[in-house]
Amino acid sequence: MPSQTLRILAIEPYFGGPHADFLEGLRAHSRHQWTLLTMPARRWRWRMHGGAIHLAREAASLVARPATGKNAAGPFDLIFASDFLNVAEFKGLAPEAIARLPVVTYFHENQLSYPLEPGQRRDPQYAFIHLSTCQASREIWFNSAFHRDAWYAALRDLLAKMPDSVPEGLVDGLLARSRVMPPGMDLSPFRPARTRERRPPLTVLWNHRWEFDKNPGAFFEVLFFLAQEDVPFRLAVVGEATRKWPAVFEKARKVLADRLVRFGYLPDRAAYEAEVRRSDIVVSTAFHEFFGLPVVEAIAAGCFPLMPARLSYPEIIPAAWHETFFYQTERELRVKLTSLLKGKGPWDRAFKLSEHVQAYDWTNCIRAYDEALERAAS
User: What is the pTM for the complete model shown?
Assistant: First the structure.
């Protein structure tokens, strides 16, 4: 069956950061024709509550305009939504020409299996927004199998608490319509040179968000220990910083001041890419990661990754290399990191791994996306 060019309406209530990068990359590389309907990335709770109301009105205005140009309005073949959209509400409010379209919803994250900080309580209303979104979508896409499985396990637990009227077979039916689609990325700025030298002191990279779920306390405790042992290293602390940082970042800025080559968020993309390319080792201590975009970027740049043997990471690294790049305990992380910082370690495997993750570059995965979208629209 010959391929076709679809007219896709992409709806993103939280258009910023990785969500925007993903959608712009998808549109730029896809053979299909895309129209974007978006809202700025702020106040995510209000986006989930009220975004559908605003975007349904925008969709009505959109289909009323004449269809001219590549990014023109309808008729559309498919809606591609993100997890921040209440799809059921949107379809109930949108004009018939939009409401009747099949929907693919892409889950970057979810608010049910996302870990909470100590003292926080989970608000189940966001999980039920996700649930109704899944029910109103023809297909549900997740960025990793770990994410998919965590969501449905948590959903089963939530539904088990309902006093009555739980639809039989609901989760199994949604699972049958679910697909794992790792996100595409532009990895071209990170490709390393094979001849790169690894001479101490090497640079350890933190390029994750400065938040509780990335477990920065464990990361810095390891570095504090290595500093006390006079193990040579430099440290680049980048990644997106929130308004309220975990206190350990301030401690690290003082205790490791003589080793810091960078401390702070780099909003300029080119500056961030350069810092990643200059680094040697990327470490994750996260106890939450639905995919791991920053780790993949660092691996693509030739960094040697040290990651916990959990979450989505085992999907990114081939099984034959798990022993090399994973650790089970904090002690094992200290041992492996110390060895690398002293110039020892299978650096050739890091280079081979950088080639392996090129599978996530848009140029290599866009065909799978385009074909999956075409099947979903048929």
Answer: 0.93
Domain pair 7-185+362-377 / 188-360, same fold: yes
The proportion of the chain whose per-residue pLDDT surpasses 70, expressed as a percent, equals 96
Instruction: Report the CATH fold assignment for 7-185+362-377.
Output: Rossmann fold (3.40.50)
Q: Which of 101, 3, 1, 81 is nearest to 367 (CA)?
A: 3
* Burial (CB count within 10 angstroms: exposed 0-12, middle 13-18, buried 19+), residue 355: middle
The yes/no answer on whether domain 188-360 falls in CATH 3.40.50.450 is no
The residue assigned the tokens 């109930």 is 92
Residue extents of the structural domains in the chain: 7-185+362-377, 188-360
Per residue in 229-285, pLDDT (tens digit) is 999 999 999 998 877 889 999 999 999 999 999 999 998 999 999 999 999 999 999
- Looking at 143-280, which runs of residues are DSSP E strands? 178-180, 203-206, 234-237, 260-263
Q: Where are the beta strands (DSSP E) in the chain?
A: 7-15, 33-40, 78-82, 103-107, 139-142, 178-180, 203-206, 234-237, 260-263, 281-283, 304-308, 326-327
